[in-house]
Amino acid sequence: MRIKALIAFLLLTVGGGLLIGSVSTPDQWYQHLAKPAFNPPSWVFAPVWTILYVMIAVAGARVWSKDLETPVRLWFIQMILNFLWSPVFFVAHKPGWAIIVIVLMFCAIVSFIVSSWNRDRVASLLFLPYAVWVAFAAYLNIMIQQLNG
């Protein structure tokens, strides 16, 4: 893996995540939503996403450095959807639309895992915790929509 690629992917992923997080923080609307009992406390999200973003960046840099066209394309698709979800949910206050975004994101993540599995197993494995977290977040998003729909 090239160091320049890793730095670029870390800046894009972690930096982008910080930027999106700063402009789409949970507001009063979110505070007043009914949430399921398994909703994690707010402080959990920042450290989990920071760790995941580092793992996502490393995976992206690996497939980029190996010039793996399909995994690279899927990496960017999932990242766009990842950065879209928070503004749709927290800024636009559209949890129903956010479900569509997060389901598409989960599909892109799983597609990345499958497409990179035989070509870069490490990149693929780095996406497994991300897939689990996004599946949980999707379930949480669906439950919030049902409780408040």
Automatic annotation (TrEMBL):
Topology versus the membrane: Multi-pass membrane protein
Localization of this protein: Membrane
Transmembrane spans: 45-65, 72-90, 96-115, 122-144
A Pfam family that the UniProt record links to this protein: TspO_MBR
Gene Ontology BP annotations: tetrapyrrole metabolic process
Keyword Transmembrane assigned: yes
UniProt record similarity statement: Belongs to the TspO/BZRP family.
Domain of life: Bacteria
Protein known as: Tryptophan-rich sensory protein
InterPro entries (UniProt xref): TspO/MBR-related_sf, TspO_MBR
Primary location class: membrane
Keywords: Membrane, Transmembrane, Transmembrane helix
GO CC terms, sorted: membrane
